[in-house]
Amino acid sequence: MADNDLGSLLGNLLGRGSSSGSGKMLGALFMGAGSGAGNSLEGLLGPLRDGGLGSKVASWTGTGENEDISGAEIAQALPPGLLASAARTCGLRDVDAADQIAETLPVAVDKLTPEGQIPDEALEELIAQHLQ
């Protein structure tokens, strides 16, 4: 699936419409992170945990309150090149992309893990289930 299609689904999931810039940004990020992990939610969350954000990721996937995250934390935790690639796809500077991801990623992950479990389904399938 093209990243703009995934971005449209994510924009709808976030309640920001199919043309949402934040949805497109998350779509580009998920597509880049999922290339080695079957385009799953774990494909992005694993590297964030490995990058030092384990407690924050746990709060987003858990059933309690989501911990806030900054764009600087996102930029530091993502694998090299992933943020730059997603930013380039969306025509943004890296710093602006990181800020946008920090604002929307916790909400998206929270909505995709309502039972506190990270599902195994591909992102497109998982998001479509939540939009029904």
Structure description:
The chain has seven helices and no strands. With 132 residues, the chain is an all-alpha fold. Helices cover 67% and strands 0% of the residues. The chain is globular and about 35 Å long. Helix 1 (3-13) runs parallel beside helix 7 (123-131). The mean pLDDT is 83. The chain has a single domain (3-131), classed as Arc Repressor Mutant, subunit A (Orthogonal Bundle), CATH 1.10.10. The protein has helices spanning 3-13, 21-33, 41-61, 71-77, 82-90, 94-112, 123-131.
Subunit organisation of the chains: single chain
Total of DSSP H or I helical runs spanning 4+ residues: 7
- Which spans have pLDDT < 50 for at least 5 consecutive residues? none
Main beta sheet strand tally, sense and closure: none
Run of helices and strands: HHHHHHH
> What is the CATH topology?
Arc Repressor Mutant, subunit A
Q: What share of the residues does DSSP label as strand, in percent?
A: under 5%
CATH architecture: Orthogonal Bundle
The N- and C-terminal alpha carbons lie at a distance of 19 Å
Number of strands: 0
- Give the number of domains: 1
- Dominant shape: globular
Tell me the CATH superfamily. Answer: YidB-like
CATH class: Mainly Alpha
- Rounded to the nearest angstrom, the radius of gyration is 13 Å
Structural class: mainly alpha
> What's the pLDDT, averaged over the residues?
83
Fraction of residues in helices?
55-70%
